[in-house]
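Morning run. Coffee first, then this:
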Amino acid sequence: MTKKISAAQATTVRRPSTADPLGPNSEIGRKLKQYYDDLVSDEIPDRFASLLAQLEEARPAQKED
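And here it is:
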């Protein structure tokens, strides 16, 4: 005979934790994280920084409430 459990008990039943939570996608996740980390650590090119500064100067002063 099988034992019936309530819905509340069913939510507390958990699968055993696995070492790799991403499963088969873990390699993709690692590569995306590595790509993102490399991208974030790159310096902003001088030309792009100059354009950003020009945009800041051209933006009208915002009102403070």
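Helices lie at 7-12, 26-41, 46-58. Good start to the day.
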